[in-house]
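User: Could you go from structure to sequence for me? I need the amino acid at each position, not a summary. Structure tokens:
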């Protein structure tokens, strides 16, 4: 296992320390980034991502804690060593490009090499090669004012890479670009990561860009809230694959990246219960279901509340629909407790005699939803699938496909419609039974 290229431990950064307007931007943040990773700092404005980013760059000294880049503390460097660090170890791409308008494109690109005493002929030849790589070789003699936003940012990427740095820092690199230019720049950074094996650390507000990353560091209020690995990427950091459960949590986190785990669970259940209510009823239903998820109201209280007139705090449901909803939602809440028990034991490697009982219970919940008789082979295979899904050994798609595949081919043989229905149901159990700390 390689050593982290960036290691942060208990990092505190406070602006205006000791003054009336003192502000603590980060609070005890710890994280590690490994060589060759593509990671993102993601979160709402003011969450601390830019603060950590610029601390790594060497321009914002920590107030407390430890920050190491390639095993060294950049804030112990002499001025000369810091220049080398910021131009050789690290390359940076800014949202606003920061190209010097009085210099040609090629002169902008070679600028970092001047600090290292590279002779003019050599640095110009190398700059042309770097520009060619990013599709900008024909624009070398132009000036920045004659470039589009996408072209300017690709020049900025070329400038960041001209000294062949170990780490590429990208601060909202596509914030000023259209969708076509955004894809070109993101693809360029992905190539730098995958082909050149450079470490890429990106700040972004764009959830669509998270798919490029190995891991995403979610920040809120100066704290690291959770770290989410991308299941579609081969991980570089050490991750226990048996303890990664990719559920609806991860899908909803991309759609609602600023929401807390309770809110995501609420949205999941609202989606499950109804497709027929209007916008205002859905909002009210979310408020009521939040009380259910937080275990603050009983099934009887839920039924009574949703039947009330909208002006009285309800959503005007008929008694039959209210009864149907209450039965469905509390059934999931009750059954999800076995998920919760299993996952807590499993994540703590605390295996026990009741492990098999919990898996059997969960498999029975799925069988009961099927409402048809299953053969002994089907029951055994279904139980095995439940175990593999709850431990993260298989994905949602794997689970659904195995339910659909015919018995002679090694599946459960439930067909397309039931495999989809039962998978959807079991994913709801996983969603409600997975503690939020399992996603940190």
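Assistant: Here is the amino acid at each position, in order:
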């Amino acid at each position: 296992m390689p050593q982290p290229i960036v290691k942060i431990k208990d990092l505190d950064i406070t602006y205006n320390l000791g003054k009336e307007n003192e502000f603590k931007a980060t609070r005890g943040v710890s994280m590690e980034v490994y060589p060759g990773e593509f990671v993102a700092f993601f979160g709402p404005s003011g969450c601390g991502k830019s603060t950590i980013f610029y601390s790594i760059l060497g321009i914002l000294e920590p107030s407390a804690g430890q920050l190491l880049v390639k095993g060294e503390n950049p804030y112990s460097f002499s001025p000369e060593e810091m220049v080398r660090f910021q131009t050789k170890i690290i390359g940076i791409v800014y949202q606003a490009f920061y190209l010097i308008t009085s210099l040609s494109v090629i002169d902008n690109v070679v600028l970092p090499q001047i600090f290292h005493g590279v002779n003019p002929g050599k640095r110009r030849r190398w700059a042309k090669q770097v520009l060619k790589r990013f599709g900008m070789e024909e624009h070398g003699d132009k000036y920045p004012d004659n470039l589009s936003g996408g072209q300017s940012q690709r020049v900025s990427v070329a400038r960041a890479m001209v000294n062949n740095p170990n780490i590429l820092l990208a601060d909202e690199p596509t914030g000023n670009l259209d969708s076509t230019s955004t894809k070109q720049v993101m693809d360029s950074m992905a190539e730098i990561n995958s082909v050149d094996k450079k470490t890429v650390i990106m700040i972004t507000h764009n959830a669509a860009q998270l798919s490029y990353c190995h891991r995403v560091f979610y920040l809120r209020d100066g704290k690291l809230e959770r770290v989410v690995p991308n299941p579609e990427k081969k991980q570089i950091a050490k991750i226990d694959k048996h303890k990664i459960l990719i559920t609806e949590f991860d899908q909803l986190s991309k759609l609602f990246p600023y929401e807390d785990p309770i809110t995501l669970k609420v949205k999941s259940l609202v989606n499950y219960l109804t497709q027929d209510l209007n916008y205002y009823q859905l909002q009210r239903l979310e408020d009521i279901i939040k009380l259910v998820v937080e275990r603050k109201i009983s099934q009887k209280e839920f039924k009574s509340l949703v039947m009330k007139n909208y002006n009285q705090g309800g959503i005007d449901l008929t008694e039959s629909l209210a009864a149907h909803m209450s039965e469905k939602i509390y059934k999931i809440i009750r059954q999800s407790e076995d998920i919760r028990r299993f996952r807590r034991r499993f994540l703590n490697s605390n295996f026990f005699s009741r492990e098999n009982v919990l898996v059997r219970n969960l498999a029975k919940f799925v069988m009961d939803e099927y409402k048809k008789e299953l053969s002994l082979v089907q029951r055994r295979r279904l139980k095995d699938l439940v175990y593999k899904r709850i431990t993260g050994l298989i994905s949602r798609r794997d689970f659904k496909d195995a339910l659909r595949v015919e018995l002679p081919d090694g599946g459960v043989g439930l067909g397309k419609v039931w495999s989809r229905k039962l998978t959807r149901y079991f994913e709801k159990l996983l969603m409600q039974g997975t503690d939020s700390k399992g996603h940190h």
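One structural detail worth keeping in mind: Residues 262-439 form one domain.
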